[in-house]
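PROTEIN DESIGN WORKSHEET
SECTION A - STRUCTURE
LENGTH: 225
TOKENS:
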């Protein structure tokens, strides 16, 4: 008897997930026919991605899977690091390590830029100026014809003030309509959400099978007694 409410709940959740998937497909059609997740391989010059980080090592700690995935799609990659990471007076060492790290991730040294500005120190107690940051980022976008931007979320992932400042700068550029109008990030988001929905469906199905098989075996045991 306990399975009936569970089955109804699972059925309702699956129905909602299915409707969500259909909605994402419809939204995806409006994001453009060509995305990173399109069926055919993208040309090497289709995607020009800029990863905006706050300190050397951010690229490895927070963005390595994304950078490697973009590399598999043959995207052209740039990295803009907005400080030298000189909090412990090791800025020069960390800049060299950054270039080496990016080379491993598939970003050539010529596409790696480090901003070493006195008003953008590596310091969680300093709020970086949004307009100053946005000026540097926008110049990089225009110089390299960037069509995909990647940076931290509103919480800076780890809560670091410098990380959060990057989100604020890009959000400012977006509000001013200065970012690429047809970014490929929509396609990545669409694919990611579809995969999340499919994974949830898979988990729900496994739960349903677990309880259904368990109930069947218990019933069979009672019949054989």
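SECTION B - SEQUENCE
RESIDUE ASSIGNMENT:
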């Amino acid at each position: 008897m306990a399975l009936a409410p569970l089955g109804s709940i699972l059925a309702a959740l699956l129905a909602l997930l299915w409707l969500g998937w259909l909605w994402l497909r419809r939204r995806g059609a409006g994001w453009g026919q060509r995305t990173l997740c399109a069926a055919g391989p993208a040309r090497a010059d289709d995607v020009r991605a800029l990863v905006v980080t706050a300190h050397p090592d951010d690229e490895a700690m927070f963005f390595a899977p994304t950078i490697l995935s973009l590399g598999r799609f043959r995207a052209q990659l740039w990295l803009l690091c907005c400080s030298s990471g000189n909090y412990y007076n090791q800025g020069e060492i960390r800049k060299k390590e950054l270039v080496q790290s990016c080379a491993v991730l598939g970003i050539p040294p010529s596409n790696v830029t480090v901003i070493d500005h006195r008003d953008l120190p590596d310091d969680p107690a300093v709020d970086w100026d949004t307009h100053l940051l946005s000026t540097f980022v926008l110049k990089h976008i225009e110089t390299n014809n960037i069509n995909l931007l990647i940076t931290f979320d509103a919480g800076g992932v780890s809560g670091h003030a410098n990380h959060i400042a990057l989100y604020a700068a890009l959000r400012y550029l977006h509000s001013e309509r200065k970012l690429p109008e047809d970014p490929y990030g929509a396609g990545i988001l669409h694919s990611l959400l579809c995969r999340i929905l499919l994974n949830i469906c898979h988990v729900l199905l496994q739960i349903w099978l677990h309880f259904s098989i368990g109930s069947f075996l218990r019933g069979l045991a009672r019949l054989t007694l």
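SECTION C - NOTES
The helical segments are 3-29, 58-61, 64-72, 91-105, 130-144, 156-159, 161-175, 185-224.
Residues 185-224 form the longest helix (40 residues).
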